[in-house]
Each structure stands twice: as structure tokens, then as C-alpha cells.
Design a protein that fits this description.
Blueprint: H1 2-12, H2 15-38, H3 46-49, E1 54-58, E2 61-65, E3 69-74, E4 80-83, E5 96-97, E6 103-104, H4 106-117, H5 121-142, H6 149-190, E7 196-199, H7 201-230
Antiparallel strand pairs: 1-2, 1-7, 2-3, 3-4, 5-6
Helix pairs in contact: 2-5, 2-7, 5-6, 6-7
Length: about 240
């Protein structure tokens, strides 16, 4: 009970403390979401195999593509996932008979998306910059004097890193959405509907949720810096000495 009272006073006596705690929480969740997005389709576990950018479906077979992995399966069979560096275990999906009778190479579609269209550098760079903002925010939370040079430096790093990460991941999330929409129109039209394209709903939701949390964390970081600046005590003017 005493601990709860202490933390309540710690967070609410100064508004900036509560804001920085919010930044800490939201950035932590954002990091977790981006890690799952990056590792999507690299393992057959449901928490990873269900995270993909696009899925190509033809007949009773499908191939899912993500940043660094590909998953493939037939309807009502166990899904197989592998890193993009080694897709030999999925060779059977290079020749799939579609419902129209045509033979399609689903594995090639997935490989092209992973290697040529998706941009893994965007989520990785965003993750690194978010980690920097996270560490700077933690350092600022531990600072005893809110008006010291250390606090100012930590505030500046956390604020700018959050802003840059928001812009970078906003571009990444938009790019992923655009890729899936474009593929749906191009692939389905070029294959005469022998292959259908499905956007990865879970990856899209996680991506936009990460972006929203990042924007809120950035706003809280900037607002806390402004509040600290306004609460800084004015400098005392030196009185002229009577010589």
C-alpha cells in the first residue's frame, strides 16, 4: 500500500513524470509489435506464422510472405515456415494447380515480395531509433534535476528520436499497405484470377497500432519537454555593485 501511494505521488505530483511514464509504456509496446512484425513467417509457431504482409492463394494451396520469412501450406494441413535464405523445403509450391486448371508458381510470388518489394530496413531502422528514444526517456526519468544539462540532453534525444521514428515507420506502414493493394490488382489480373492476393490483416493491424502508439509517445515526449522548459525558474539578474 505504501508503495502504491509513493508511485501515485511520484507520477501525479509532476505532470511530466506521468507523461514520461506513458512514453515508457507506449514505446515498450511499440518495440514488441515491431519485433513480431520483423520476425513474421520465420517460424511455424502461430504467433509468427500469422504475421505476414501478403498471402497468395491458388486452389487449395497458399504462400505467405513477410520481411524475412515465407510460410506455405495446403488447406487443412500443417503450415511450414522458413527464413527467406533457405526455401528448399517449400519447393513443392513451385508448381501448384489452380482451380482454373493453370499451373502457377506460388513460391516465386512470395520470394519476389520478400526480396524485392518489402523494405525490411524501414522497421529495423525504426526499431533502432525507438530503442534510442526509449533509453533517453529512461535516463530522463532517472534524472534528479529536471533543469540540468543532462535532463535537457536526454529530453532532446528522446524527442527527436521519437519524431524521426514516427516519420520512418509511418512510411514503412504506408509502403506495406500500398504493396499489398498493388499486388492484389496486378497479380489477380495477370493470372486471370488463378492466384488471389490477401492482405495480412494481423501484420497491418500491428503496424498501424505501432504507428499510433509511436505518435502518442512522441506527443507526450514533446509536451513534457515544453512543460519542463516553462517550469524552469527565471534567472536572477545581478544587481550592479556600488563602487
Amino acid at each position: 500500500m505504501a508503495a502504491l501511494i509513493y508511485y501515485r505521488r511520484y507520477l501525479f505530483e509532476q505532470p511530466t513524470r506521468f507523461l514520461r511514464a506513458t512514453v515508457f509504456l507506449f514505446l515498450s509496446i511499440t518495440v514488441i509489435l515491431l519485433v513480431f512484425i520483423i520476425l513474421g513467417c520465420t517460424s511455424s509457431m502461430a504467433s509468427y506464422s500469422s504475421v505476414y504482409a501478403v498471402k497468395f492463394v491458388s486452389g487449395n494451396a497458399y504462400v505467405q510472405a513477410s520481411y524475412y520469412g515465407i510460410c506455405a501450406s495446403y488447406t487443412n494441413t500443417t503450415i511450414a515456415c522458413t527464413p527467406i535464405a533457405n526455401t528448399t523445403t517449400l519447393e513443392e509450391f513451385t508448381s501448384v494447380t489452380a482451380s482454373t486448371g493453370a499451373t502457377v508458381n506460388l513460391l516465386t510470388f512470395g520470394t519476389v515480395v520478400t526480396k524485392k518489394l518489402l523494405r525490411p530496413g524501414l522497421p529495423i531502422a525504426s526499431l533502432v531509433i525507438i530503442a534510442i528514444a526509449h533509453l533517453a526517456n529512461c535516463a530522463r526519468m532517472l534524472a534528479a534535476n529536471p533543469h540540468s544539462l543532462f535532463s535537457f540532453t536526454a529530453d532532446t534525444i528522446a524527442g527527436w528520436a521519437s519524431i524521426i521514428a514516427s516519420i520512418l515507420w509511418g512510411i514503412g506502414a504506408t509502403w506495406d499497405y500500398t504493396v499489398s493493394d498493388t499486388l492484389s490488382a496486378v497479380v489477380e489480373g495477370s493470372t486471370s484470377d488463378a492466384v488471389s492476393v490477401v492482405r495480412g490483416t494481423r501484420m497491418s493491424q500491428m503496424g498501424w497500432a505501432a504507428f499510433a502508439l509511436l505518435v502518442i509517445a512522441t506527443a507526450c515526449s514533446v509536451i513534457s519537454s515544453i512543460l519542463d522548459a516553462h517550469s524552469m525558474p527565471p534567472r536572477k539578474l545581478e544587481e550592479p555593485s556600488n563602487a
